[in-house]
Amino acid sequence: MTTQRRIPAADADERTMLEGWLEYHRRTLAVKCEDLTDAQLRTTAVEPSELSLMGLVRHMAEVERIWFRTVLADDGAGPIWFSDEDPDGEFHLSETDTWQEAYTTWQSEIEAARRHAAGFGLSDLSKGVTRLGDGGPVSLRWIYTHMIEEYARHNGHADLLRERIDGATGH
Questions:
Q1: What values do phi and psi take at 52, rounded to 5?
Q2: Which of 3, 64, 127, 157 has the greatest CB tally within 10 Å of its CB?
Q3: Cβ–Cβ < 8 Å for 144, 124
Q4: Could you give the domains of the chain?
């Protein structure tokens, strides 16, 4: 699988630009995970960190779910892997956790995010509330900006993890 990425046009309108950069960063994470085995994708950074590429993908599935389903649409979707008892559950991998499951779940959450976002204007406020800041609703513009930041930060982690696994850089 070769994931294609495209930088948004410099003269795109605001929504196209935000959606384009979010898509670019989603695809960047996919690129960082390409051509690796499940065991490699479960490889953690350094002790005591539990950070792995598969864990990052699972984390971003949770993040997509929280921001677009729980906050934006208030659709009642609960967490996938984490819980009150295990708030970092998406990073707690076992030998039975597979890339196929993580990737499929992540892509499903991205599709749900796109569907929910399509029903909102950039300035429209979320139906649900966030636990950040004042705890109130946020605009779709705010969610897009936050998601770009979230992916960009974790793509930096993914770059370091990938380099540790097989020396690949600059994807």
A1: -140, 165
A2: 64
A3: no
A4: 14-166 (1.20.120.450)
User: 171 falls in which pLDDT band (50, 70, 90)?
Assistant: low
Please tell me the total number of residues recorded for the chain in this structure: 171
Region for residue 155 given its phi and psi (left: phi exceeds 0; alpha: psi -120 to 50; beta: otherwise): alpha
Tally the C-alpha atoms within 13 A of residue 159's C-alpha that lie toward its C-beta.
Answer: 11
Omega of the bond leading into 8 within 30 degrees of 0 (cis): no
DSSP label at residue 48: T
Contact between residue 155 and residue 32 where contact means Cβ atoms under 8 Å apart: yes
Give the model confidence (pLDDT) of 137-149 as tens digits.
999 999 999 999 9
Distance, in Å, from the CA atom of 34 to the CA atom of 146, rounded to the nearest integer, reads 25
Question: In the numeric block, which tokens belong to residue 112?
Answer: 């749900």
pTM metric for this prediction? 0.95
Radius of gyration of the chain (CA): 16
How buried is residue 75: exposed, middle or buried, by Cβ count under 10 Å (0-12/13-18/19+)? middle
Instruction: Give the SS3 label for residue 139.
Output: strand
Q: 85-123: b or e for each residue (b if 16 or more CB lie within 10 Å)?
A: eeeebbbebeeebebeebbebbeebbebbeebbeebebe
